[in-house]
Design a protein that fits this description.
The protein is an alpha/beta fold. Helix content is 32%, strand content 16%. The strands form two sheets. A seven-stranded parallel beta sheet has the order 9-8-10-7-11-12-13, with helices on both faces. Strands 3-2-1-4-5-6 form a six-stranded parallel beta sheet, with helices on both faces.
Length: 363
């Protein structure tokens, strides 16, 4: 993939093929697109397990009612231009993918199994003149970090979390929207395939880049946004610092060299979601994770500071407040993003004597 989806599409009608994902933790890509995408207008979902149900009731944070069908034929009746595939292309869904190609739909795939690895799909796509887009099939990046991150004028806010699938991308996106409403030149730096489908100011697919060059890619991502004149950059986190299965967050932390950290947390989780209940996947205590983040700064970089904790739901807000004295809010609710952003701006002013060039106070 050489272009961002937003360079090809703009509020384009799409259906999402997502058997077994709608309303589930692993369906976060579906929910994210429904909530925030400016690139795609989702007109139907295909999930045989949730057919006929209300997306507003079963999809966390979603307020848009979209029909859910059992089969692809019903979805295509809405005349979409694009099919977004959730999960890997395989023997179970190839018939549905081919049906969409024959109907003239571009296919967007976010998995590590590429559409272009299936010769029959490539042949069919050429015949019907449609695009096969593998979001994780990124161009080779051979850039090592060079320290240019120290020369930026912008301030970086790293939106991290204590687990996968608990709202880091949602928090980053909502905070950018809140900042822009206040007149701040804010940027959403996406680091995952879902963020690319929402409409980002710049983005990479972090987990598809060779591990030796991810730090360079993250540094370049931020430096490029700084060069474009953005003054407050929200860097989307991935996974978690203290996660046996995916602790790659530490690379984002170091490469992003943030001036402030926002840490998304769900106090109701005892084990990392979807990995089972082996003791190795036990959730880290919130305060311990905060302490670890703040002590992992590089000697030549910024001192990390966790300044706020987004969570979901009033019950969780109260639980987190008992664990820390930091500001806590649900960014999906009115005034939630304002609470978190206010804490970020307060820290940047106190620690760095920094304020945005243009600023409208929150109402």
């Amino acid at each position: 993939m050489t272009k961002l989806p937003q360079e090809i599409y703009n509020n384009t009608d799409a259906i999402i093929l997502a058997h077994g994902y709608v309303g589930e933790i692993l369906g976060k890509t579906v929910h994210g697109i429904l909530m925030h995408s400016k690139v795609f207008n989702v007109v139907a979902l295909i999930d045989r397990d949730k057919a006929g149900q209300d997306t507003c009731k079963i999809c966390p944070g979603v307020t848009k009612s979209v029909p859910i069908y059992e089969n692809i034929i019903s979805g295509v009746l809405h005349k979409p231009k694009v099919l977004i595939l959730i999960g890997e292309p395989n023997d179970k869904n190839l018939v549905e993918i081919k049906y969409c190609i024959r109907k003239g739909l571009d296919i967007i795939n976010s998995s590590f199994v590429f559409l272009k690895e299936f010769p029959d799909l490539v042949t069919l796509a050429n015949e019907f003149n449609v695009r096969l887009i593998d979001l994780r099939n990124v161009k080779r990046i051979w850039k090592s970090p060079d320290g240019s991150i120290l020369n930026i004028k912008a301030k970086v806010v790293f939106v991290s979390g204590t687990d996968c699938g608990l709202g880091k991308r949602t928090a980053a996106f909502e905070l950018v929207q809140e900042a822009k409403m206040r007149g701040i030149r804010a940027a959403f730096a996406a680091t995952g395939q879902t963020g690319l489908m929402l409409g980002c100011d710049a983005g990479i697919v972090f987990d598809a880049i060779n591990v030796n060059y991810v730090a360079g890619a993250v540094e370049e991502l931020i430096v490029d946004l700084d060069n474009k004149g953005y003054e407050l950059i929200f860097l989307e986190g991935q996974a978690s610092l203290m996660h046996f299965g995916c602790s790659n967050s530490i690379t984002l932390l170091h490469a992003g060299n943030p001036h402030a950290v926002v840490l998304v947390h769900d106090p109701s989780r005892k084990f990392h979601a979807t990995y089972g209940n082996s003791p190795i996947f036990k959730m880290c205590e919130l305060q311990r994770e905060i302490n670890l983040i703040e002590n992992l700064y590089l000697d030549g970089g910024n001192k990390y500071k966790v300044v706020a904790v987004p969570t979901i739901g009033e019950k969780n807000i109260q639980a987190v407040k008992k664990l820390t004295n930091l500001p806590v809010a649900d960014v999906r609710k009115p005034r939630g993003p304002a609470v978190i952003l206010n804490s970020v701006l307060k820290h940047l002013e106190e620690e760095y004597n920094w304020a945005p060039a243009c600023y409208i106070s929150a109402s």
